[in-house]
Amino acid sequence: MGSTPAGSRPATAVPGVVAELADCLGGTVHLAYAQASGLEAVVAGFSRYEAQTRALTRATALDQLHRLPYDSPARPDAPRGRELRLADFVPDPPEAVGLFVPGTGLVSGNRYRLPAEVVWLGERETQVEPVMTGVVDLGVAEAIAEIIAHDVVSRWWASPRRQPLLRVSAQLDRLLPAGVMAAASGLGLRVSAFALTGPDVTIAMVMVGGEGDTLEVAAGRTVRSAVGEAFLRAMAAKAQPWTALALTDALRRFAVWHREGDYAAHLERLGVDAEPWLVGEPGDLRRSSWPEIAARRFGHEPVAVESGGTGVIGKVVCPGAACYRAAPARLPCPIP
């Protein structure tokens, strides 16, 4: 991928977490790797500061979520709150393990008790997905946007004819920072991008092929913001060691790598060229917050999980989102 080490900086404010930085694509994209308590985070940014900050935040969240205590309803000192069940996340749920973790509603501020399966990071075998979706690395709003993106794509993948897929690959020079596409082409990387648009949010799917193929999705208020984030996620996925992935994520990543041509042909066949005006910055989106958008979409407010009682949110879950169990399709959906 043409990466060259660019030094490392210890995270002095977060004991035990170190972020290493590397430049790629001629310095137009920066990768950061961070580790805490054996848990790894790889993120990408269009600036060194963005990449390092996100890596440190994500590694810290993973570490603190990994240490979360789980309680059973039988405990007399168990935190109070409305109890959510697996059925609130997954249709026809598997048998629950009966452990819970406290959470806070991001619209109402109400307290909840969440089934542990939707919070676990993959260190335990479970039939519930996703594993890493909703972990905070940039902010709470961005974590909610990630869940919305996965929800939209998983529903679309199961029934793609219900919503048109817009092909925006020809506009990538306008959608990504200057020099990114030229550097990618110079290194033999193939980048294609598609968008699903709605009244509140745009979802982007970006596929990066060459030296290992990845397909990632992101949500934004504009095509530009969604494509930029999905591209960064795809670049980070190319650098992520497969050994650090949960089994379900590794299997999806392998499916895209092994069947790149099938995925690319599937998206190209369904896509229609976007009108140039759609690529611009639209000005008529409602100024709703991401928690409110999620609450309208899922019929339930998103719930935040605090990291070890520190007051810092490590993960967000959204009851009602379709991504907690993958829907069958001709090609496996490439995201949870």
**Rg (C-alpha, Å):** 19 Å
The outline comes out as globular
Q: Report the average pLDDT across residues.
A: 84
Spans with pLDDT under 50 lasting ≥5 residues?
Answer: 1-13
Distance between the termini: 25 Å
Can you tell me about this structure?
By secondary structure, the chain is α+β, with helices and mostly antiparallel strands. The protein has nine helices and 14 strands. The N terminus is likely disordered. The protein is globular. The protein has a five-stranded mixed sheet. It has a five-stranded mixed sheet with strand order 11-10-9-8-12, with helices on both faces. Helix 2 packs parallel to helix 9 and helix 6 crosses helix 7.
Summarize the structure.
The chain has helices at 48-66, 140-158, 172-175, 180-186, 223-239, 247-258, 260-270, 276-279, 290-298; strands spanning 4-10, 18-24, 29-36, 39-45, 82-83, 100-105, 111-115, 165-167, 190-197, 202-209, 214-220, 271-273, 303-306, 313-317. By secondary structure, the protein is of the alpha+beta class.
